[in-house]
Amino acid sequence: MEESFNQEILRAQRQQHPIGVIMLDIDHFKQFNDTFGHYAGDYVLRVVAEVLKNSVRGSDIACRYGGEEMTLIMPELSLPAICDRAEAIRTAISQLRLNHNGQNLNTLTASIGVACFPQHGTTPMAVIKAADGALYRPKANGRNCAIVATLS
Predict the structure, then answer these.
(1) How far apart (Å, rounded) are the C-alpha atoms in residues 145 and 113?
(2) Where are the coiled-coil regions (predicted)?
(3) Residue 68 falls in the annotated catalytic set
(4) Cβ count near 44 (within 10 Å)
């Protein structure tokens, strides 16, 4: 992810285009894993990854950042466009109705932080840090929403 993002930043600087970043965290995933088991948790991660796969273009970078946290790096998407994409992903996840081994699983929701190069940072780590910081605001305010990073 870091190497690809570094290359995208260099291209964006040359071509004067933005890069949108989404940090996504599945809400209450530990509780979900504890209630339904790790196989069901793995299933949820695969389903969410499929939602993300269907939401990105060939030039986008989608990866698991850690645990139940995912990152999308979307070159040439402006802040309004990345916000629209984040909301579409959040909605798609909340509309999933999952069944694993004959057991209906709870409704999933996701908290999302959004940032954009160069508004929220001029290095890959600065933009990711901005998106990650924004991700914690939905978690503190009821979850299941997408919030844009604040400008520093």
Answers:
(1) 9
(2) none
(3) yes
(4) 23
